[in-house]
Amino acid sequence: MKLRNATLNELPKAVLRPIYDRAQLTPGIVHIGLGNFHRAHQAWYLHRLMQQGDAHNWAIIGAGVRQYDAAMREKLLTQDCLTTLIELAPSSLSAEVIGSMIDYLAIEEGNQPLIERMAQPDIRIVAMTVTEGGYFIDPATKGFDDNHPDIVHDSHNPDTPRTAFGAIVAALRLRRKSGTDPFTCLCCDNLLGNGDVLRQTVVSLARLSDPDLADWINTNCSFPNSMVDSIVPATGPSELALAHQLGIDDLAPVTHENFRQWVIEDAFCAGRPDWDKVGATFTDNVHGYEAMKIRILNGGHQVISVPGEVLSVKTIADCMEHDLIRNLFTKVAETEIAPLVKPVSGMSTQDYVTSVYSRFSNPKIIDTTRRVAFDGSSRHPGFIIPSIRDGLAKGTSIEGLALVEAAWARMCEGTREDGSKIDPNDPYWDELKTRAQKARKNPKTWLEMRQIYGDLADEPRFADAFSKWFSLIWSDGLEAAIASYLDA
What region holds the Mannitol dehydrogenase N-terminal domain (predicted)? Predict the structure, then answer.
């Protein structure tokens, strides 16, 4: 059954579907970067509210700023912006069609359709998932990188920007000029203090071309911090086939684990849906939840995916079946990461490690090590290096974390231990590969990437541990290095 509005009532009975009249939905949210995660997470929460007869004036309009978004736009418009979500629990499967998205804006150079839509008064939230590395952060200072070519372009061409942030600034300029109230900017990426990061990017970019507008945005817009959590693999042939097995011809189905969490700071300048009625948490302690999730889950993903790539282990669940990789995760998480993370209400750090262990082990989730290890140049500084710095400051062990960094350097050399090639897997792959190859003669060459490691190359306890593990990986193999760490 081809998925579209007209066929919803003909779907298999076991498949949940919208019970609200989608023709009566009106928009309130523009979401930029509409990938699998958004559809399985934020769009699902809104859909569930709509199922209760609520939030029908908060429907989502999808958007993108890069041409590769056009393929997803075409797929979703073909099926009236409906998405099949397939929940994969370890021992069960269920499916639900969600309908909270009602349109997807045309993607054009200069982003005029996006700017014009965000400038309309019915849009009260502009949300985004553009990956952790997409916020133009100077890695050395953690401030705004105003030298990036895209930012330079947007500062000189504020009415025809390249970036999502330039489009937001342009839309807010139009709203201010017309007397329309501002909207909330909601970041849904895995960044500590993600709302603060988004504020820094938007306000700093605006200041380059219009300081008065920057002050207006900073004073009147809100940028709530949030933490999002669910494991959502990429869609490939097996996911398409799974939807077909359920009787649904969906061009872009999404599989996901049987877990979701959304923790949000309640700071919305133009109102918001009551997401808390369907399981989201509003709290002043978003940072605590963020830190636990980013350090243990996102950091844990790097702990296992990098060795998995080097050792030709294809999925995260397979990594958890690999004795050495599984035990590496357990020891690093329990002894080097979790002790440095504060618990949150209702969840100890050990309980969270146990939960993550179970989620990573779900054999139904076909999440590839390659996907999880992607963009290490952003993910290691965000997810691993903060734990290293805390461990050094507090005098706790950083041996396992140094081993993970050495394994990442080994991965970036570009080959697996079985001799197969690792295709480019990072925006800065060429630089990483060159560094990794040079590090075979001098391991500390890798740590001289100040944009990633800052001054950690000058910390003997970390630099020496890194060099030891990197040399051992090349001389005896990664499995021998992991075994040595586990035996210590």
Answer: 28-277
Q: How far is CA 369 from the centre of its chain?
A: 15
**Residues 6 or more apart whose Cβ sits within 8 Å of residue 296:** 333, 337, 338, 341, 349, 352, 353, 356
Evaluate whether 194 touches 226 at the Cβ level (below 8 Å).
yes
Q: Looking at residue 138, what is its pLDDT?
A: 85
Judge if pTM exceeds 0.70.
yes
Decide the pairing of beta strands 125-128 and 27-32.
parallel
Contact 11, 97 (CB under 8 A): yes
Q: Comparing C-alpha atoms, which of 175, 62, 159 is closest to residue 122? A: 175
Q: What is the mean pLDDT of the chain?
A: 96
Count of domains for the chain: 2
Q: What is the mean pLDDT of residues 244-272?
A: 97
Mean pLDDT score, 79-106: 97
**Residues 6 or more apart in contact with residue 352 via CB below 8 angstroms:** 292, 296, 297, 338, 343
Choose the final residue of a domain: 254, 283, 312.
283
For residue 410, what are the domain limits? 287-487
Instruction: Indicate which CATH number applies to the domain containing 354.
Output: 1.10.1040.10
The span from the CA of 14 to the CA of 1, in Å, is 14
